[in-house]
Amino acid sequence: MLLSSYTLLGLIIGSFLNVCIYRIPLRKSIVFPRSSCTRCGTQIPFYDNIPVLSWILLRGKCRFCKTPISFQYPFVELLTGAAFLVCGLQWNFAPPTYVNTLFLSVTIILIFTDFHHRILPNVLTLPGTLAGILLSPFQDPTVYMDGLSVRIAGLFEYQTAQTVLPWAGSISGAAIGGGILLVVGLGYQKLRKRQGLGMGDIKMMAMVGAFLGWRLTFFTIFTGSCLGLLAGIYLIVFHKQNLQAKLPFGVFLGIGSALALFYGLPFLTWYLPS
Ligand SMILES: [Zn+2]
């Protein structure tokens, strides 16, 4: 019962995330006015604003002018519903359920604003980083480390501290996440004389680090880079794009961070057995 209500809430919040994705890059208020059709301007009545269902009933078209409504609207609603569902399942409505639901919701907005506009808005990444730090005592403590031992060929062994205060885990995660991308970005700029990473990517990774700690931040950057590389190869081979095409790196980092949240620790414990 709780799980289905929470998933339903996710679908409704997804509808709100659609508003954020559309309006934040345009610097419009996300509260006011009520949603209207982007083509004919007619205000959308409440009965046409039911997540997913309305889009299906209207067959993806505005009731008044019949302009097609992007599949992105129900897709974001379903994605958000799924995010709520898996957070409920994973942490069984203990505090980390809510912390990570918030994290994934902000990440969903970032993925789509970056995809459409190559923008990762400061109004999301900066308060997001702060929220990650402030909420760290309520986050799943395993994300911030704890007694991970690293062994290389049986020669070198390094045992990390058993318990790091969540604040320390979160703040160091933010510093490392933002720091790595800053260093890589500056290095790239020096070598290639053009900007490879935006400040938005750097701030987004500071947020990821604040929520997920440094280990999952590494996992996110690694996975995001692999996904970006695959997408780049795909575009070059099938769409005749050149190497200079600017990919929305935030999209891949966002997907990478979601994978890190659910698969990162099992992967790291398998890859670095203690
Ligand atoms: Zn219309």
List the domain count as a whole number: 2
State the helicity in percent bands.
Answer: 55-70%
Strand order of the largest sheet: 1-2
Distinct ligands, ions and cofactors found in the model? zinc ion
Q: What kind of sheet is the major sheet?
A: 2 strands, antiparallel
Tell me, what's the shape? globular
What is Rg?
20 Å
What is the first-to-last residue Cα distance?
A: 39 Å
List keywords for this structure.
8 helices, 274 residues, mainly alpha, single chain, 64% helix
Task: Summarize the model shown.
The protein is an all-alpha fold. Helix content is 64%, strand content 3%. The structure holds zinc ion (ZN).
Structural notes for this entry:
- The chain is mainly alpha-helical.
- The chain has two domains: 1-78, no CATH class; 94-271, no CATH class.
- 64% of the residues lie in helices and 3% in strands.
- The protein has helices at residues 2-23, 53-57, 72-91, 95-117, 122-134, 166-192, 199-239, 249-271; strands at residues 149-152, 156-159.
- The chain has a two-stranded antiparallel sheet.
- Helix 5 crosses helix 7 (199-239), helix 6 (166-192) packs across helix 7 (199-239) and helix 7 (199-239) crosses helix 8 (249-271).
- Bound molecules: zinc ion.
- Zinc ion (ZN) binds next to loops.
